[in-house]
Amino acid sequence: MASCTISSRFTAFIKKDVGLSVFSSSPSSFSVPKTKRRNSREIVSVMTPQQSPRSPSATGSVKTAMTMTEKILARASEKPQLSPGENVWVNVDILMTHDVCGPGSFGIFKKEFGQNAKVWDHEKIVIIPDHYIFTNDERANRNVDILRDFATEQNIKYFYDIKDLGNFKANPDYKGVCHVALAQEGHCRPGEVLLGTDSHTCTAGAFGEFATGIGNTDAGFVLGTGKILLKVPPTLRFVMDGEMPDYLLAKDLILQIIGEISVSGATYKSMEFVGSTVESLTMEERMTLCNMVVEAGGKNGIVPVDNTTHKYLEDKTDVPYEPVYSDEQARFLSEYKFDISKLEPVVAKPHSPDNRALARECKDVKIDRVYIGSCTGGKTEDFLAAAKVFHASGKKVKVPTFLVPATQKVWLDVYSLPVPGCAGKTCSQIFEEAGCDTPASPSCAACLGGPRDTYARMNEPQVCVSTTNRNFPGRMGHKEGQIYLASPYTAAASALTGFVTDPREFLQ
Fold first, then answer.
1. Measured between alpha carbons, how far is 190 from 204 in angstroms, rounded to an integer?
2. Which candidate among 19, 254, 392, 431 keeps its CA 20 to 30 Å from the CA of 420?
3. What separation, in Å, do the N-terminal and C-terminal C-alpha atoms of the chain show?
4. Rounded to whole angstroms, how far apart are CA atoms 241 and 29?
5. Is residue 473 a contact partner of residue 480, using CB atoms and an 8 Å limit?
6. What's the CA angle centered on 274, arms 36 and 316, to 5 degrees?
7. pLDDT value, residue 59
8. What is the pLDDT of residues 423-478, one digit of tens each?
9. Which of 355, 371, 113, 332 lies closest to 225 in space, CA to CA?
10. CA 278 to chain centre
C-alpha cells in the first residue's frame, strides 16, 4: 500500500492509496489492512471480505457497502446498489440554470422536444439570473429577457427575476449568485440530486446531496425528461482532524487540498469530506469547501449531514428529505489525512488554483487591488471574517478594495448584522472606516470578467488578491492580470498592507 508524508512546510499530511481496500468510515477511527510494503507506488487491491448480515440502511438493504455518492445515485436510479464506473439513468430532483447558460439550454430543449414542448416539472426547475446583470451590454440584458420569457411560457415556479437594474432592492424576487441563493431559498436538501449549468454547482454537496455541473446539451435533455445518464464516480475521502486555528478559514483548507492533489487530482471523482474539523465548520464554510472541488477536477464534493445541516434547513424548506451516509466498509479510491491544527494560511498564486504557497512566503508581492465576493467568498460569514481583520487593525486599506455580496440577503446582513467582538459595529460600518469601496449590487460581478463595464472588472494588467475560485489568465478581465486566490482573512490583511499578507499579522 502506498503511503507518503508530504512536505512539512504544508503541515502533517498523509495519503493512502487504498484502491479497493476496506476501512472504517468512522471519523474518529480510520484504518487500512496491513500489507507487505512494496517499492512500487502502484495501488494495491485486496479482496473485499464477506459481509456479515446486518440491518438495512436508511436507503434500504444493500449487498455491498457504498459511499454517500453511490447511495444517492443508487436511490435516484432505482438500483439496489451501484459501483464506480457504472452508467445509470438518474432521476433529477432540481435543475438550476442562469443567464449565461439558460438561453442555450432552452434552445436545445425546444429543438429536440418541439417548440411547444413543456418541461418535465415546472416546480423542479430553478432559474437564477446572476452572472452578467448590472451592465449596459445589450446581449447580456437580452439573456435575462430570454430567461423571463421561458419562465412565463413554462410557468416556472422558481424564477428569481430582476427588471430594475438601477436599484436591485426594487426587485424583491431577485436573489444574486445562484449557488448561495440555492441554499438560502431551500433548494439544497440532503440525499437529493441537484444539477446546474454551472461548474460550481458542486457547492450544494455541503448539504449531503449529489450536486454537479452539466452542459447546455445535458440540461436541455433534463428539461424535457427529468433524467440524466451519469457514470458513478469513485470516491476520494479527505479526513480533516484537529482544532481549526482562529486564523484559518475553509478557503485555506480547500486550497491546501488542491495544492496537494493538483487541478487534475480528482478528475471525475467524488470528494468526501469528514473528520472533526469538518464537523466543526458552519454550513457556509462547508459550502466553501465543496465549492472548489471542481478546481481539482472533482465530479462532486459531499459532506455528511449532521445537526448543523438540520438546523440550517429548519427555516429553509418543508420538503421531506432523507440523508444517507457512507457505510462503515465503503470502498474509497484514496484517503487523505490532514492535521488542520498545523496548517498555515495559504494562497494560490497565478495562474492556477493548485499553485499553492504559504501566504507569508508571498509577503514581497505588491498588489494593486483586493476583491471580496463570489459564490466562494461572498457569503455573510466571509464578510464578517474580513470585517474582523479590518477592525482588529484599526487601519485603512492601502489599495482599492471591492466588496460584492453574493445575494440580497448577504447584502442586508452586511448592513445589519453586528460583527462579533467589534463593539456592535456592522460590516458596512467597519468597511467604511477602513476605506473600502461601498458594497456593490449582489451578483457574480468580476469573478469571471464579464462585459467591460462590469463592477470591479480588471481592465488593466493589475495584481489582485481575491476570494474567488479561479485565477487563470483573463479570468477576472485582463488577460495579463495576476490573481492570488485567498481566504477573506488573507484578502483583508493584504488590503491593509498593499502586499500579500498573512492574516496572523492582525489576528494575533
1. 9
2. 254
3. 41
4. 11
5. yes
6. 160
7. 52
8. 999 999 999 999 999 999 999 999 999 999 999 999 999 999 999 999 999 999 99
9. 113
10. 14
Predicted pLDDT at 312: 98
Classify strands 346-348 and 356-358 as parallel, antiparallel or unpaired.
antiparallel
- Residue whose C-alpha is closest to residue 45's, from 56, 32, 63, 28: 32
User: Could you tell me if 484 and 367 are in contact, meaning their C-beta atoms sit under 8 angstroms apart?
Assistant: yes
CA–CA dist 9, 5 (Å, integer):
11
The closest alpha carbon to 455, from 177, 54, 134, 218, belongs to 134
Q: Residue 199 gets which letter from DSSP?
A: G
**The C-alpha cell of 189 is what?**
436538501
- Exposure class string for 178-212: b at 16+ Cβ within 10 A, else e: bbbbbbbbebbbbbbbbbbbbbbbbbbbbbbbbbb
The grid coordinates listed for 418 are: 453586528
Q: Give the residues of the chain that fall short of pLDDT 50.
A: 1-8, 11, 19-57, 62
What pLDDT, on the 0 to 100 scale, is given for residue 13? Answer: 64
Amino acid present at 271: M
Burial annotation 100-133 (CB, 10 A radius, 16+ → b, else e) = bbbbbbbebbbeebeeeeebbeeebbbbbbbbbb
List, in sequence order, every residue forming a beta bridge with 404; answer none if it has no partner.
373
Which residues contact residue 252 at a Cβ distance below 8 angstroms, ignoring those fewer than 6 apart? 343, 345, 346, 487, 490
Closest CA to 9 of 272, 475, 275, 345: 345
Identify the bridge partners of residue 336 per DSSP, sorted by sequence position: 15, 238
Tell me the whole-structure pTM to 2 decimals: 0.90
d(CA 193, CA 213) in angstroms, rounded, equals 11
Bridge partners, residue 370, by sequence = 401, 465
Helix (H, G, I), strand (E, B) or coil at 488: helix
CB atoms within 10 A of CB 14: 14
| Angle in degrees, 0-180, between the axes of helices 427-434 and 408-416, rounded to the nearest 10 | 80
Cα separation, 370 vs 252, whole angstroms:
17
Orientation angle between helical segments 380-393 and 283-291, nearest 10 degrees: 100
CA 249, CA 238: separation in Å to the nearest integer?
16
**For residue 17, what pLDDT is reported?**
59
- Between strands 334-339 and 346-348, the pairing is unpaired
Other C-beta atoms within 10 Å of 37: how many? 8
Beta bridge partners of 366: 499
Q: DSSP assignment, residue 446? A: G
Question: Residues 383, 410: contact at Cβ < 8 Å?
Answer: yes
Closest CA to 212 of 125, 284, 301: 301
